[in-house]
Amino acid sequence: MHKLTKENLPRHLAVIMDGNGRWAKQRMLRRIVGHQKGVETVRLIVEECSRLGISYLTLFAFSAENWLRPKTEVKALMALLKKYIRSEIARMMHNNIRFNVIGDRGELPVDINRVIDDAIAQTAGNSGMLLTLALSYGARQEIVHAARQIAIDAASGKIAIDDINEGLFSDYLYTTRIPEPDFLIRTSGEMRISNFLLWQLAYTELYFTDVNWPDFDKNELAKAFRDYQSRERRFGKTSDQVQVGGTAVGDITRHR
Ligand code: FPP
């Protein structure tokens, strides 16, 4: 296994945090206990990514489909989110982390939106890692939202049809100004993307681990990063081109 080097870490790490429920079930605990333990992992991984110098960390915390879960679980997850965001502001300030949310915020309860606005405003001046929580997020919904917005702007003459290209489309997504993820980790053994960042993951390296999110820790993160560092990112080019040219870093749209 490669040794972890600080130079070639992903600039943008995205994570599908899965397996809280199974972690709890295996221990004959209620699902919410798994989510509570999952929050502790969030704290740990956010801190470690910031320490390692990761520039962008995007966590899938609540999907558009998660609203269909039993009401009690949705309520408990919302309460956890509110508590987490509120309690993390001080730590984000200490670690120079900027807070951000993507997703359909119109679906979120008013009190959560208030806490989110507060965290975004308080951390807006920080210059370190951008921590993005995907909340009430679905990638298809995001793409449709972008398409609709582009149609509105084209109809009103704000943009011309000829302006519509991949770069412009990206600017209409929730992730505008955030580079595409270099690396995606999904925990708990499921090998799916589950409607997460479908556009943005086009050239992302994918990593799946059997470890459930509550058991994911710094060592597991280091293991995942070592795996990432052993990969060659070609962005559609040949291996020879990448090794000679050495330009296969970052955002694919910039190579067009
Ligand atoms: C998957 O576990 C996880 C979620 C649905 C949400 C992730 C939420 C947290 C880690 C806690 C709150 C987050 C923050 C940022 C404070 P699952 O319930 O789908 O697990 P299962 O597939 O084993 O049932």
From TrEMBL:
Binds 2 magnesium ions per subunit. Signal peptide: none annotated. The active site is at residues 18, 66. This is Isoprenyl transferase. Catalyzes the condensation of isopentenyl diphosphate (IPP) with allylic pyrophosphates generating different type of terpenoids. Homodimer. Substrate binds at residues 19-23, 31, 35, 63-65, 67, 69, 186, 192-194. NCBIfam families: PRK14830.1, uppS. It comes from Geotalea uraniireducens (strain Rf4). Its cofactor is Mg(2+). GO terms for biological process: polyprenol biosynthetic process. Gene3D superfamilies: Decaprenyl diphosphate synthase-like. Coiled coil: none annotated. Belongs to the UPP synthase family. One of its GO terms (cellular component) is cytosol. GO terms for molecular function: ditrans,polycis-undecaprenyl-diphosphate synthase [(2E,6E)-farnesyl-diphosphate specific] activity; magnesium ion binding. The lineage of its organism: Bacteria, Pseudomonadati, Thermodesulfobacteriota, Desulfuromonadia, Geobacterales. It is an enzyme of class 2 (transferase).
